[in-house]
Amino acid sequence: MAQPRLLGIIGDPIGHSLSPHMHNTAIEALGLNYLYVAFAVKPRDLAEAVAGMRALGLVGFNITIPHKEQMLALLHHLTDEARIIGAVNTVRCDGKELIGHNTDGIGLLTSLRNDAGFEPAGTRCVILGAGGASRAVTVQLALAGAAAIDLANRTRARAETLAQHVVAQIPGVQVAAHALDDAKLQDVLATADLIVNTTSIGMQSPDDTPLPESLIRSRHLVCDIVYRPLHTRLLREARKRGARALDGLGMLIHQGSAAFEWWTGQPFPVDRVRQSLIEALNGAAR
Ligand code: NAP
């Protein structure tokens, strides 16, 4: 059999990543001759590692924490999403040229549409957190035509910086910044359609939640992009309050799907991969 074509991921640490499991499951299900490999790369070694990926002829690779922004300087071209978000999570090697893309926001958008039937155009969205994932999610919801976006973050200044960035990049969009514990959030939430948690709270401390249960209403779709654990306290309380709840697995799968299809031109076997990831996450939780 011919040598497999190589895909991969670079990050530090990388052992916890579900991407090798996800992509190799898809490769096997489709009977393709590819192999997806994880590489632990320190920030000081990033440029050399990327030069190595090109020299070795990888088809493409993912980039995860802490390299998503530093990677920008090493690319020849950027997609519109990557340029506006200011970070890349996916690279395609076209000959000797490297093209950077960001599929995190598209991943959430596809999960909202396909898994929850939610169309963001014209809606009011509240995003908890203002870190890297929030940046991708906020830009993508703005590009999808959200009427208003409210960012609420523990460090208010970080939400303000992100709000200014999005307004400057996507003219016409309305983005406001708040502190996570701002009393005004109650009024904002009263008319909101979507709440997306992009803080790492549910992952760091599973008994904690970014939002008091009393602020959740039945009109809300509540999405927690944390997927370890899958059933966060925020989602449990959302269901209790009669709201719809969406976990972070869909975003993970659909960001991977967008990358995989961009690299291989093959349709991603979403259901097969979802089943396999649920088994892997349940196994890890035991
Ligand atoms: P990040 O850049 O480090 O941002 C972390 C965010 O969480 C910041 O807004 C931070 O607020 C907030 N935060 C952390 N601890 C907090 C606490 N104790 N109380 C209040 N706020 C707190 O991380 P990221 O890359 O955005 O990732 C965030 C989470 O999203 C992670 O759990 C990650 O696994 C998940 N994620 C999921 C997917 C998916 O595909 N489902 C994709 C990407 C990320 P400050 O600014 O105040 O520090």
Write up this protein:
Helices cover 41% and strands 20% of the residues. The chain is built from eleven helices and twelve strands. Helix 5 (132-143) links the parallel strand 7 (124-128) and strand 8. The structure holds NADP nicotinamide-adenine-dinucleotide phosphate. Residues 104, 107, 129-134, 153-155, 158, 180, 198-201, 203-204, 225-227, 248, 251-252, 255 line the site of NADP nicotinamide-adenine-dinucleotide phosphate.
Oligomer: single chain
* Overall geometry: globular
Bound molecules: NADP nicotinamide-adenine-dinucleotide phosphate
| Sequence of secondary-structure elements | EHEHEEHEEHEHEHEHEHEHEHH
Rg of Cα set: 19 Å
Percent range for β-strand residues: 15-25%
Derived from helix and strand composition plus strand pairing, the structural class reads alpha/beta
Number of strands: 12
The end-to-end span amounts to 38 Å
**Strands in their spatial order, largest beta sheet:** 2-1-3-5-6-4
The largest β sheet comes out as: 6 strands, mixed
Chart the SSEs and their pairings.
Layout lengths: L4 E7 L7 H12 L3 E7 L5 H11 L3 E4 L13 E2 L1 H6 L4 E5 L2 E5 L2 H13 L7 E5 L3 H12 L4 E6 L2 H14 L4 E6 L5 H6 L3 E4 L3 H4 L16 E4 L8 H8 L3 E3 L2 H16 L5 H16 L1
Helix pairs in contact: 1-11, 4-5, 4-10, 10-11
Bound molecules: NADP nicotinamide-adenine-dinucleotide phosphate.
NADP nicotinamide-adenine-dinucleotide phosphate (NAP) binds next to helix 4, helix 5, helix 8 and helix 10.
